[in-house]
Specification:
alpha+beta; PH-domain like; 2 domains; four-stranded antiparallel sheet; 6 helices; globular
Length: about 180
């Protein structure tokens, strides 16, 4: 491979490019079911509040809150898609990780922690990390060569040597954090 690092990717994601992977990741039938169930619990809670039925408030309010907390990733993702029409992305791809600009800070996502790289739609690659970070990259924003490199790093993280490297990196990060406290 003849890749030059760092590779800087800047692109914009539409609602559809974020919604379809979210829907397919959580389940095409499961997502509407959960949303309707949550809406039912909320409606019953409001109805109980209006009629001052304390048992209904406690039961349905508790169920709505429990469902929200249990599946907050789904609800936050849906709200984000609903409220933000277009999302500008700024990535710096290094040899072992991607730096993702969130606000004014750049956060690091190491490729050896990726669980999967998948195409939920024809025009978007979705990268899922073990820590819950989901990254969408349009097909036209990334080369096949760079994608192959990321896949190779993901697979390397699943080997005994790769796992040992992750442990060592964690120890170094821990030492840096301790030295700055």
């Amino acid at each position: 491979m003849n890749l030059q690092f760092p590779c800087h990717l800047q692109y914009t994601l539409s609602r559809r490019q974020r919604f379809v992977p979210l829907l397919r990741d959580w389940g095409v039938a499961y997502t509407p079911f959960v949303v309707l169930l949550f809406a039912f619990f909320c409606e019953r809670t409001v109805s109980s509040i209006l009629s001052l039925t304390w048992a209904g408030i406690a039961v349905f309010g508790g169920l709505a809150l429990g469902l929200f907390l249990m599946l907050r990733g789904l609800f936050v993702g849906l709200l984000y898609v609903l409220l933000v029409p277009r999302r500008k992305m700024d990535l710096i791809i290094e040899e072992k990780a991607a730096g993702i600009l969130i606000g004014e800070e750049r956060w690091c996502m190491f490729f050896d922690g990726l669980l999967e790289i998948r195409k939920y739609t024809a025009d978007v690659w979705t990268l899922r990390h073990w820590n819950g970070v989901v990254l969408h990259i349009p097909v036209d924003a990334i080369t096949e060569e760079l994608l192959a490199h990321i896949r190779a790093e993901m697979e390397r993280g699943r080997t005994p040597e790769g796992m040992q490297a992750v442990i060592e990196r964690g120890r170094r990060i821990e030492e840096i954090i301790r030295s700055h406290q």
